[in-house]
Amino acid sequence: MKIRIERFRALRPVRAVGFSRVVLTLVLILLCLLFQALSAIVNHGSVFLTYERLISAVNYGYFIGFMALGVTFVIATGGIDFSIGSVMFAAGLISGYCFRHYGFPMAACLVMCPLIGMVFGLVNGFLVSYVRLPSFITSLGLMQIAKSVGSLFTRTQNVSWPGESEAGGWFRSLANLKITLSGGRVLNIPTGMILLIAVAVLCSVVLHKTRAGRYMLHLGSNREAVHLSGVDTRRWEILAYVICGTLAGFAAIFYVSCYTTVLPGKGDTFNNEAIAACVMGGTSMAGGLASILGTLIGTQMIAVMQEGILAMGLSISFQYALTALILISAVIADISSRRRN
Amino acid sequence: MEDVILTMKGIDKTFPGVHALNHVDFDVRRGEVHALMGENGAGKSTLMKVLTGICAKDSGEIVFEGRTVEFRSPGEAQEAGIVIVHQELNMIGHLTVAQNIFIGREPKRGLFIDDARMNKEAAKLFAQLRIDIDPKETMSNLTVAKQQMCEIAKAISHDAKVIIFDEPTAALTENEIEQLFAIIQDLRAKGYGIVYISHRMDEIKRITDRVTVMRDGQYIGTLITAECTKEDIISMMVGRVIYEDPKTENRCPPGAPVVLKVEHLNAGRLVRDVSFELHQGEILGFAGLVGAGRTETARALFGADPRDSGDIYIDGKKAEIHSPRDAVKAGIGYLSEDRKRFGAVLQKSVAENTTLASLQKFMKGIFIDKRREAGTAAEHVKALKTKTPDVEQPVKNLSGGNQQKVIIAKWLVSDARIMIFDEPTRGIDVGAKQEIYELMAKLAETGKSIIMISSELAEILRLSDRIIVMCEGRITGEMDIADATQEKIMAAATREIDQQRQAGAKEGSRP
Fold first, then answer.
1. What are A304-313's pLDDT values in tens digits?
2. pLDDT tens, B214-225?
3. How many Å lie between the alpha carbon of B76 and the closest alpha carbon of chain A?
4. Hey, are the CB atoms on B325 and A226 less than 8 Å from each other?
5. In this model, does residue B100 exceed pLDDT 50?
């Protein structure tokens, strides 16, 4: 058995993708099958793997995915960002409010989302890299500030983005492009998935092919050694937070195009899911090691989990505890693998 | 002898790759101050750690008050009556003096701590020691000297019979030292056995009764302090046979230009008015004991730590160095003594570490040219004879000597002209040491200028063209290799405080 695993590990495609990513994908498939079986038992025949459920899971994976991609950079530098969920909501609230109440054109609102995220990322990154505060504290602070800013801007009102048929509703095709076929059937093209993969490829290139990515990973491995090699560590560290914030803002577009309404003072529950997706994918909480592909697979795992819980007729409140458990187990796995080395 | 309170016999201790203690004997009598001396790494601290149960001995016997003992923790040793007053004080700043002294064994009244009794007990201890400290004072408000006295009071409250002082005067002023000595004399008169570890020769002469010298983990001998001279002690400390040939002449050509000039550098407590020059192609050795301020000088010079004052000139032009980045731009490379923390990014590959200080040279547009990076890394692996299967290997898989070579390659790739080697062979085995030495000599021949900080005298004498000796933050000696001897270096490295002051005043008056 052991020899077989070693042989499988040595296969070329497996090595290219990374053994743990392959395992993670297998776990993802198993998880789908498990939910299929469990939900069939629990719901007397109603199954998990339906078209609607899959679309729903994929939708959930969009905004979690963009946040997780962003936070991968921060975790690579050895930091953490707990503000991404609230920053996403702040972006959704502010730009949606501008659309509803100030008559901003939709295109401008869509550009505003990542820009708002970027501002939060910049503040967070500045506090971490130049003021040298622990990211754990600054991002918790920014989480609350983002909630306040979003709520204050909208006078503590919900903001609903336009529906498909309303003016400006076209933005929803960024996540799901719906084409009505001649027979009256509607074809749903998951454009959001294409965009998510495109952004992931971009992230992967930045992380592994450019100076910025190289230094971020080195920073997470051994900050002092990098600093003493004459590298301006602050510049690259702040960039990681800016990328993270920008992508959190970008995630807002996909949240509202799937779920329409943003509530003030919320959003923080999504942090753990994005961070869990990232750590499950093999990005080390200790910094220095990151995998964009892993984050992508981890995201789908979180999405399937959420949908599976619903399919079994369980309360969504289970999701919080389950995500926390996954996060903790992923960190345990990460720590124990590093101890072994 | 009946007044012997503690005997250590044939103590042996091996760490991986190092024979730290080789059948060491040591004893302490009631009512004596017994000095324990030796160079850094001679085994003094290890011996005391074995005694107080911080680490276990491999073999040997400890007899304390007539019984064979084996302490498994400092707590057990303390319980039995052996207490160590550490160099770094172990007090909790925000608690009161009395709370610190009685921590873990506070007098209780019912469920509550009896503060009044605790303060009274502490006051009694201070009266016994004739020290004036308020037991209710917060610890962090006291001076280092006063905190140390609290440690002594704590030791006595533990009913100690043997008290070990580990470099107790390192952070004290002259007045405070006098006070401490008075207390130590007093303790001696009361019959305590005292072990006194210090590098300061004048202190040893003043307050100790016997001196035991250790070298390279071995017991060398014990002298009666009153009957020996400082020179006797020094020659016992350094009297090792040097197997490698020391350098006999300065190989740096006489007319070599000054590439680096440091003037009146001050940074914190351990870099005080340091001035020196470094010539092209020269290896300038920085000798001294650990804590003499050599690493601190290097870090201040490299911009890694802030400096209070002083100027740095490179090629005669004033250089503004305020960060390692500035230093690297100016052509300086720093190879830390702690390679794992400050040198290499261990998880990452040989190739990535090789280009770490000069990645901007390996860019093709916005992308890293990984092929060129790997090529350059492979060239340096070959040139420096680094043993690694390939350049993709994480540095953590390499041995200490090969890790050092990767770091040398990093600075070669970044075109550093001045390289600061801090303990270049620490943690490197003998064979690889040789290679690093040859490499450094070759670097100097090719025109690199090298500052080498080393606590190994043999290393200093083997490589340096010129030697600077530091003690307590000041330069206390400067000599050409032709005039240098171990004794001269050691004398300068342990130079007494007042002599330093004079030297400092002279230096200050020099234009």
1. 988 888 888 7
2. 988 889 999 999
3. 31
4. no
5. yes
Amino acid (one-letter) located at B511: P
Which pair of structure tokens corresponds to residue B340?
Answer: 């794992």
Query: Where do we find the tokens 């001045």?
Result: B418
Most confident of A52-61, A115-124, B223-232, B236-245: A115-124
Q: How far is A193 from chain B (nearest CA, A)?
A: 26
What structural domains does chain B harbor? Answer: 4-238 (3.40.50.300), 241-331+417-511 (3.40.50.300), 346-415 (no CATH)
Flag if A228 and B302 touch (Cβ within 8 Å): yes
CB contact set of A168 (below 8 Å; sequence gap of 6+):
A99, A105, A106, A109, A162
Q: Which amino acid is at B44?
A: K
Q: E strand or H helix at B335, and its extent?
A: strand B332-335
Are the beta carbons of B368 and A209 separated by less than 8 Å? Answer: yes
Listed in order, strand segments (DSSP E) in chain A are 159-160, 177-180, 186-189, 261-262
Q: Which B residues, 337 through 396, put their C-beta within 8 Å of a C-beta on chain A?
A: 341-348, 352, 356-357, 359-360, 363, 366-368
CA distances from B361 to B206, B277, B357, B492 (A): 60, 31, 10, 44
**CA–CA separation, B298 vs B389, rounded Å?**
33
CB neighbour burial string for A71-94, b if at least 16 within 10 angstroms, e if fewer = bbbbbbbbbbbbbbbbbbbbbbbb
How many cross-chain Cβ pairs, A to B, lie less than 8 Å apart? 70
Is B240's pLDDT higher than 80?
Answer: no
